[in-house]
Specification:
Blueprint: E1 4-8, H1 12-23, E2 27-32, H2 35-44, E3 47-48, E4 58-60, E5 71-74, H3 81-87, E6 94-96, H4 103-106, E7 112-116, E8 119-122, E9 128-133, E10 136-141, H5 147-161, E11 167-173, H6 175-195, H7 206-225, H8 238-245, H9 250-262, H10 284-291, H11 297-312, H12 319-330
Parallel strand pairs: 1-2, 1-5, 2-4, 3-9, 5-6, 10-11
Antiparallel strand pairs: 7-10, 8-9
Helix pairs in contact: 6-7, 6-11, 7-8, 7-10, 10-11, 11-12
Length: 335
């Protein structure tokens, strides 16, 4: 008998996971705050571009009473974690599939996490998503797991493998994949979201590209100095990416190769910038804390930029990147 699964958060990743498990015949419930998404889901089901929709129960977060024995796939933004954790009587079956590092969540002793390298873009007012960039879901333990925990994770991976939306890889230790994803997210998200551009623009706009490459190098240096292992979640291992960035002429050549695959893809921070709370503390803020006294001017400037935009409720625009460069120059740091 397949276990019951509650997917919390009808964003791009949550919808992709819920659709995949429901498509495989699992008992899936989707938990969401947005009244419009709840109404649309109850009426029309859960949708993925190019696929038949699936019908499953939709529960408003305010009415959610999670069963103690259900697998909980946590697919919210990290700033929503405290409200979710307050509802859970046990974290024994919790599997976050999020971006970034959330200190309150990471302090708990749950067994496993998922890291998605595919990009899934969801409609704002209905539970419908499009896979805009293919990739994998890495599932694995974040600490030594018991035999029961490994069996549950293996069953979840097998259920998700029946999906036609993304590949699933069950890994022994998910932490190197999480660290590698942070290296990329903390370079892409603040720049693309602040400028209001798709991810491909980071490889076409000269200023954005300089800041993007600089953040990648700085992020890698912070993670390696902290002694964190890094895994390959894309075409190249993070160490190879750094070698490419340090080879004259090669970054421009590789940018031309990767640009088409990034067109029309947007970071998960994009809908939040200028409108409300963001995950900047879970991305660049985490790297700043991890760095300690190690110089990380670009990450500090990225945090200040997003915090200023949030405080001012400023709309995304390219000039925010100019402001970030001016901020760096004013503090004696070259961009």
């Amino acid at each position: 008998m397949k276990p019951q699964v509650h997917v919390v958060g009808a964003g791009g990743i949550g919808i992709a996971l819920a659709w995949s498990l429901a498509h495989a015949g699992w008992d899936v419930t989707l938990v969401e705050r947005n009244p419009a998404k709840l109404a649309a889901g109850r009426a029309d089901g859960l949708g993925v571009a190019g696929r038949l929709s699936v019908k499953l129960p939709f529960v408003a977060f305010t009415d959610w009473r999670p069963p103690a024995d259900a697998i909980i796939l946590l697919c919210t933004k990290t700033y929503d974690n405290p409200a979710v954790l307050a509802r859970l009587a046990t974290l024994r079956h919790l599997v976050p599939v999020q971006n970034g590092y959330d200190a309150p969540l990471d302090s708990h002793d749950f067994a496993a996490e998922g890291i998605a390298s595919f990009v899934s873009e969801c409609d704002r007012e209905r539970p419908f998503t499009r896979i805009t960039r293919p990739g994998r879901l890495h599932l694995g333990a974040r600490r030594p797991a018991t035999a029961e925990e490994r069996d549950e994770l293996r069953a979840l991976a097998e259920g998700l493998r029946q999906s036609v939306l993304f590949e699933v890889e069950l890994v022994e230790d998910v932490r190197p994949f999480k660290a590698a994803k942070l290296m990329y997210n903390a370079a892409i998200s603040p720049l693309a979201a602040a400028a209001g551009v798709d991810n491909a623009a980071l490889l076409t706009d000269s200023l954005a590209k300089r800041l993007f490459f600089g953040l990648l190098l700085e992020n890698h240096a912070i993670l390696r100095r902290a002694g964190l292992a890094l895994a390959k979640i894309g075409p190249f291992h993070p160490d190879t990416v750094v070698r490419i960035l340090r080879t004259p002429g090669l970054p421009t050549l590789m940018a031309n190769f990767f640009r088409p695959s990034l067109r029309g893809t947007y970071c998960s921070m994009a809908p939040d910038v200028g409108h409300g709370e963001t995950e900047i503390e879970a991305y660049n803020g985490h790297l700043v804390r991890l760095a300690g006294n190690f110089p990380c001017p670009l990450n500090r400037a990225a945090v200040r930029m997003i915090e200023r935009i949030t405080q001012e409720r400023s709309p995304p625009r390219r000039s925010h990147l100019d402001d970030m460069v001016a901020d760096l120059a004013g503090r004696g740091s070259p961009a």
